[in-house]
Amino acid sequence: VGVHPSVSCVFIPSPGQTIKYSLSPLMGMAEMFFQGVVDAVFTRLFSLVENFFNLVPGLVAAFIVLFVGFFIAKAIGLILTRVLYFFHLDKKIRRTDLRDTIGPMSLAQFIGKLGQWIVFTLFFVEAINFLQWGVFSTLILGITGAVPALILGLLIVVFGLIMLDFITHKV
Q1: Which pLDDT score, from 0 to 100, does residue 2 have?
Q2: d(CA 105, CA 92)
Q3: Residue-wise pLDDT tens for the chain (171 aa)?
Q4: How far is 118 from 155, CA to CA, in rounded Å?
Q5: Could you tell me what percentage of the chain is helix, strand and coil, using 3-state DSSP and rounding each to the nearest 5?
Q6: First-to-last CA distance in the chain?
Q7: Are the beta carbons of 97 and 163 closer than 8 angstroms?
Q8: Burial per residue of 37-74, b for 16 or more beta-carbon CB atoms within 10 angstroms, e otherwise
Q9: Closest Cα to residue 126, out of 137, 134, 113, 136?
C-alpha cells in the first residue's frame, strides 16, 4: 500500500510494478520548515540586539544622573550638617534634658544624612524616568515617591517624641 505524492488516493501496486517517489516535495517542505525556524531565530536575535541598543542611551543617562545626583546629595548633606554644627545644634540639645531621648547620636549628622538621602531619592526618580521600563518604572516611581513622605513622617514622630520628653521634664 502506498500513497503517491501527486495523487490524493491510496493505491495498491500490482506485483512487479515499481513505484517511483520523488523526495523533492519533502525536501522542499523540510527546507521551508528549517528556513522558517532560522528566520524566526534571527528575527528574535536581531530584535533582542536592537532592543539592547535602544536601551543603552537610557542606561547611560540614568547612570550619569545617579552619579551626579550622588555627589550633589553628598554635598548637600555635608553642607546641611556643617550649617547645623555652625548653629551649635548638638551643643544646645546636650544642654537640655533631651540627651537621654536621642542618646549619643549627633542630631546634626542625622539631619544631614537624611537630607542627603532625600536629595538622592529625587535623582533616583529622574534616573528611573530615563529607563522607560513601563510597569516596572511606574512601580519604582511609586515606591520612591513615598520615601520622602515616609522620612518626613518619621521626622515628625521623632520631633514629637523629643517635644514630649521636653515637656514632661519641664512640668
Answers
A1: 47
A2: 14
A3: 444 555 444 455 566 665 555 555 556 666 677 777 778 888 888 888 888 888 888 889 999 999 999 999 999 999 999 998 898 877 777 766 666 666 667 888 888 988 898 899 889 888 888 887 778 878 887 887 787 788 788 888 877 877 787 787 776
A4: 12
A5: 80, 0, 20
A6: 110
A7: no
A8: eeeeeeeeeeeeeeeeeeeeebeeebeebbeebeeebe
A9: 137
Distance CA 38, CA 28 (A): 15
- Note whether 76 and 116 are within 8 A (CB): yes
Which residue type does 7 have? V
43: its cell numbers: 528575527
Range 140-147 contact pairs with CB under 8 angstroms and sequence separation of 24 or more? 147/118, 147/121
Residues in the chain: 171
Residue with grid cell 515628625, as numbered in its chain: 156
Q: How far apart are CA 87 and CA 81, in angstroms?
A: 10
Q: Is 19 helix (H, G, I), strand (E, B) or coil?
A: coil
Cα separation, 60 vs 127, whole angstroms: 10
Q: What is the DSSP-derived secondary structure letter of residue 104?
A: T
